[in-house]
Amino acid sequence: MPFLVSLISGGMLISGELAPPQAFHAVTKQAYAESIGVWPPRPNEEGRNRSLIENIRAVLDAACEMEAGLQPDEVTLIDAAIFPAIEAQGTRSGGRKIPALRVPTATITSWWIVEGETVRGRGGISFGAGVLFPLDA
After folding, report:
1. What's the rounded Cα separation, in Å, for the pair 101 and 83?
2. ω before 20 within 30° of 0 (cis)?
3. Sequence-ordered list of residues with C-beta below 8 angstroms from that of 14, at least 6 positions apart, any chain
4. Mean per-residue pLDDT for 61-75?
C-alpha cells in the first residue's frame, strides 16, 4: 500500500508516495529511458538514444553507490506532483508531475498524511474603517 504524503517546501506544495532513498535512482533511470525520443526510435536515433540512456544509468548507479550507508537528509517521493502554494491563488496556475524527486528536510515547513477538506473563502468585498482619537493624559 503506498504511503502518500503532502508537504510545503519553498513556497511549493508537493505530494507523492514516500520511498526509500534508493528508489530515486531506480525510478529516475526508468523514467529517463522512457522520455528519450520517440518509441520505437528511428534508425538514426537508436544509437544516440542508447548511449544517452547508458550514460545516465552509469551516473545514477555511481551516485547510488556513493550514497550507500549515508544518513539521508532529504525525503524521497515517487509519482510526485508539485504546485506553487500561492496563498491568494491556490494552485490554479497548474503544476508538474514528476516520477521521482528529493526534498531537503531542512526546507520542509509543514507536512501531512491525511488529506483535509477544502475550505472556501467567503468571497465578496471586505471593507474596514478606523478613527483616531487623541488621548489626553
Report:
1. 13
2. no
3. 6, 7, 8, 77, 80, 81, 82, 83, 101, 103
4. 77
pTM of the model: 0.65
Q: How far apart are CA 3 and CA 1, in angstroms?
A: 6
Q: Which three cell numbers stand for residue 5?
A: 504524503
Instruction: Kindly state the cell numbers that stand for 54.
Output: 547508458
Closest CA to 31 of 7, 8, 56: 56
- Alpha-carbon span 137 to 117, nearest angstrom: 51
pLDDT digits (tens, 9 = 90+) for 112-137: 887 777 667 666 565 555 555 666 65
4-51 pLDDT, tens per residue?
899 999 889 999 999 988 888 888 888 877 777 655 666 677 677 777
